[in-house]
Write a structure and sequence with these properties.
This protein is mainly alpha-helical. It is built from nine helices and four strands.
Amino acid sequence: MTHDRLRNVLTSALLSALAVPACGGVVSEEPPKDGGADVATDTGIDTGTDVATDLGVCTPIPDAATCSEKVVYPCGLPFALAGSTPTLEECKSLCAPIKFTYGGPYSCGVYPTGTGGTSQTVNCASCAVGRKPVDLLDEAECHEEDPVAEALAAMTRIEAASVHAFRKLERTLRGLGAPASLVARARSAARDEARHARLVGSLARARGARRHPVRVAKDHVPTVFELALENAVEGCVHETVGVAYLEHQRAHAATPELRAMAEQLYDDELAHAELSWDLVSFFDQHLDADQRRALREARDHALSALPHEMAKLDGRVRVALGLPDAPSVGRLVASLRTTLYA
């Protein structure tokens, strides 16, 4: 994936997504009065039920120490999904065994576990996106009076955690005999993320947010599949589409400081997204056909969840940071499906 091609594809998709609909009208940038969650939640699914009850050997296996929180259902999902992609309420139920750092999930994806059988893995995602390392430990939730300060504090923590993620990626790539160029780019990405954490952290503290340290389980050794899954979901989806978000933010964020933040992050995050796509072919060499299929499915589910994630975001935060609204993200995703994700 070349730098210029990725930039051009994302820019073209963003411009297409922001175009005035044929029926007329423009997309409002005013935050909803109820705080921003405009996704229907009354689906009739009991999200407070312990899904492990009375399942015996079929008891769900939660894992909050992976690159994205996950729950393995050895005997298949406890209920049939309403559609091909889990709704937010279905995600809440399926991910209930996980204790989320930021009160997630805001999305989830379902893919087969291993080869054959009925076992299904639900890949859950909390509200702070980024290249979350496989061994990030749970932390007390970030609760600030200012929702923008809270969002910046959460972003700072994930940026700082991403330093560790890229350092571990660098070591793993070196151990697998990856080309020196990939190893060097992972090392450079770690330096970028350290700089990002300082930048975003300064903005968070300026708004009164507290510092939230990052703790990792240093003895955890991620599998190649775990790192490939992290790359597929966090890199090829969240970091990649995040570049399009940053392009929108650097023009639409509410303050000069927030616009400058997006401007400073843009080129680095574009390079990280490019690295993620270049890693796909390398990781594929170390995975079997079922694992490669599982990665594609997880990536597709994460992509489908993006409009729902944006819809759930507090409207005050979305407008302050200059993020596109949910309908625009839906059009962005649709456009990228015909190009980058085709």
